[in-house]
Design a protein that fits this description.
Elements: H1 5-10, H2 12-29, E1 32-34, E2 45-47, H3 59-80, H4 83-90
Antiparallel strand pairs: 1-2
């Protein structure tokens, strides 16, 4: 898209078109949730919530996330390989 963010945000028609395309893309890519009206049906779905534009994150929070990222990844990896733990935890 050749236009800058400022002009896009001020053009309501273009913004609505971008939102429509984003929803279509989310549906095509499988970014879906079952609806509360039909929670056990995979035939009735809606797209998962998302934002069109990046959200600001305070730098202190971003640094905290970076600081724990490696440990968190190691934890997720270890849990994913522990079949007994997963079975016991998820069986409830």
């Amino acid at each position: 898209m050749a236009t800058g963010w400022g002009s896009l945000l001020q053009d309501e028609r273009q913004l609505e078109e971008l939102a429509r395309q984003a929803v279509d893309r989310a549906l095509a890519e499988g970014v879906l949730l079952r609806t509360s009206q039909e929670p056990s049906s995979s035939n009735v779905v809606s797209y998962a919530p998302f934002t069109l534009f990046p959200s600001l994150v305070p730098s202190a929070l971003l640094e905290q996330a970076y600081a724990v990222q490696m440990d968190f990844n190691l934890l997720v990896d270890a849990v994913s390989q522990n079949a007994a733990f997963l079975e016991q935890t998820l069986s409830r």
